[in-house]
Design a protein that fits this description.
Length: 166
């Protein structure tokens, strides 16, 4: 069982993660499908952008740190350098193992009996980004809670929560 404080932190972390996931996916998809970037380059750019937004939101809202407190930024960037590489790598692995399928919605012109594509998304890219995000999210929550934004008053709380979960 996790503590109430950890549950609240995890909920906030998840909301911030959802916002940054949408940002990551939008940028990645725009760069790779719209502008023809290589998947690794598009994913690299989208991860760096989402990571920057994620730091600011998590620092002030999830972990309650002062907006002017950037002393943890180096640790955060080290954590995200590792998790960012893991994110890009796992995205490429998922792209290799997932089938190349698309989901399309059409508009039907009944007079001409013609269907025109209205919306198309490559399912392999969408699912690969989701999978890579889950992998990174686990590493990032544990790293932020136990290393980046750990304060002396809650230093033992995470270890205690883990003991209760066993």
């Amino acid at each position: 069982m996790i503590s109430r404080d950890t549950y609240i932190e995890l909920t906030k972390f998840g909301i911030v993660g959802g916002i940054c996931f949408a940002l990551d996916l939008s940028i990645y998809y725009s760069l790779t499908e719209g502008l023809g970037f290589a998947t690794w380059l598009g994913k690299g750019i989208s991860v760096v952008t989402a990571t920057t937004v994620n730091y600011q939101l998590n620092k002030s809202w999830t972990w309650g740190q002062s907006p002017s407190d950037n002393s943890r930024f180096t640790r955060y960037m080290l954590l995200y350098a590792v998790s960012g590489m893991l994110n890009v790598f796992s995205n490429e692995v998922f792209l290799k193992i997932l089938p190349d399928n698309e989901f399309q919605m059409f508009i039907m012109n009944k007079n001409l009996l013609v269907q025109k594509p209205f919306f198309t998304i490559k399912l392999d890219k969408f699912l690969a980004v989701m999978g890579a995000t889950v992998v990174g999210m686990v590493v990032n929550f544990i790293g932020q809670k136990s290393w980046v934004f750990k304060d002396s008053s809650s230093a033992g709380k995470f270890a205690h929560d883990n003991d209760l979960a066993k």
